[in-house]
């Protein structure tokens, strides 16, 4: 996935460079570059730099999520809803909470493997937030079915 994404990024950079070169090519009869051509070259260069600057972090985050999915250290069969909860946990909770099943080692929130909470407690914390410990868990971090899926996932895998 990362290699394919980097190839697409490289192709975009080459296309941007070629476009910039074509735009800046001037006829032999002109003595200097026009302001329009200089502006287009500048705009093309800025575009390529912005695309690369936005694409690299996005690609790395996607690769990290894929690695976490492949390297699950537990042998628990997850339901479809729990699998969805796992993805939501990785995206929203793993930076603060420790949970071996998601390869997360957060230090702000409680270690869920040690706490081994029931689904109802997790869902309550997600919906109402918490103001204890090292940091504050925001209210309504996830809502509805998303909160339930994460709660069911954590209850199924915590401490296993």
From TrEMBL:
Domain Cytochrome c residue range list: 80-158
One GO MF term: electron transfer activity
Keyword Transmembrane helix: yes
Keywords: Heme, Iron, Membrane, Metal-binding, Transmembrane, Transmembrane helix
Segments crossing the lipid bilayer: 39-60
InterPro entries in UniProt: Cyt_c-like_dom, Cyt_c-like_dom_sf
Protein name: Unannotated protein
């Amino acid at each position: 996935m990362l290699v394919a994404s980097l190839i697409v990024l490289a192709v975009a950079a080459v296309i941007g460079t070629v476009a910039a070169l074509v735009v800046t090519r001037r006829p032999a009869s002109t003595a200097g570059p026009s302001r329009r051509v200089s502006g287009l070259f500048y705009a093309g260069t800025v575009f390529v730099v912005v695309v690369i600057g936005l694409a690299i972090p996005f690609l790395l985050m996607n690769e990290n999520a894929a690695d976490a999915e492949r390297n699950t250290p537990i042998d628990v069969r997850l339901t479809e809803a729990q699998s969805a909860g796992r993805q939501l946990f990785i995206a929203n909770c793993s930076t603060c909470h420790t949970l071996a099943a998601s390869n997360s080692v957060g230090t702000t929130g409680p270690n869920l493997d040690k706490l081994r909470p029931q689904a109802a407690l997790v869902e309550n914390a997600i919906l109402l937030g918490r103001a204890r410990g090292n940091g504050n868990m925001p209210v309504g971090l996830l809502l509805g079915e998303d909160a339930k899926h994460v709660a069911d996932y954590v209850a199924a895998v915590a401490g296993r």
